């Protein structure tokens, strides 16, 4: 039986989280679905194009600079005809209108939009979701935002949790190199992995404050801040101002995130304003590292509060300090949380469950 073709759109030249999740989506669909076949449309020579091709996913060269770029529209029409595509799965907001325009050229084409951020849109953008056959979101927080603010009908928007590449974390992760480089041996390491866009960043500011407050009580405490961005220098200066620049280590960007998380005793994702899902919380739990995260966006859906991690309010240094002390004062409790977290991730965010849920979305839109 011929499989139904699904064309995944992402005209990106970057290698960010959304690109990686798009790649995982196509790979998992190819390997685990007996009904749908993915084709990835992305710019030739980019991370997405090259990695998907290397994993055996069929790829098509596609670049589109804006919603109604004539060359992009024409190219998409050609790809749909050549591949006999039934469903367009759009992973990038700027391509929503481009994909929906295909409904004028192809009578039976279905369009699924993928929303990863909990942000508001201009008035004209809300039409995306009403014209699409279905919108999938990475968390219920994003789904509720679309329903409340964009007035998307509830039956047209559905949660589709990210597939987690658990196999990558099942392998033995060696953190010895990180521990040696940043002089972490014998230290209690409290860390985070996130972009640093400002002094506050994704809550790194409050992690620095917490470490400063805990230093006297826990002389061997150390901070590990992984990530880069415009606010990195501001945070380094802030650590110096609070007198912890000797024990708060800034690593910059790394592609080897598991090694750095494995070097931590406690992982914190302290998002302040928005967070579509907080995939890095899953990474930490899969590595059996205790997690503290905020109630922002989809973060509460990435842990089980009081069982696999601790939820705190954003921008609340006192709550962060209490949560850290809870883990440091009871090593057995921290171990139990870490073990439970690993099982939670493995059972809830498996590749097969993701593909089963995605298959149901595709079947629903095809059946009207």
The main β sheet shows up as:
7 strands, parallel
Q: Given the helix and strand composition, which structural class is it?
A: alpha/beta
**Can you write the helix and strand succession as a string?**
EHEHEHEHEHEHEHHEHEHEHEHEEHHH
Share in β-strands:
15-25%
Low-confidence sequence ranges: none
Total strand segments: 13
Overall, the morphology is elongated
- Helices, by number, come to 15
Radius of gyration: 22 Å
Terminal Cα span = 22 Å
**What strand line-up does the widest sheet have?**
3-2-1-4-5-6-7
The share of residues in helices is 40-55%
Compute the average pLDDT. Answer: 93
Topology of helices and strands:
Layout: E1 4-9, H1 17-32, E2 36-42, H2 47-54, E3 58-61, H3 70-83, E4 87-90, H4 96-101, E5 110-115, H5 127-131, E6 134-137, H6 140-149, E7 157-159, H7 166-170, H8 176-181, E8 188-193, H9 204-214, E9 221-226, H10 232-241, E10 248-252, H11 257-262, E11 266-269, H12 279-286, E12 290-294, E13 309-312, H13 317-329, H14 331-348, H15 351-366
Parallel strand pairs: 1-2, 1-4, 2-3, 4-5, 5-6, 6-7, 8-9, 8-11, 9-10, 11-12, 12-13
Helix pairs in contact: 1-2, 1-15, 9-13, 12-14
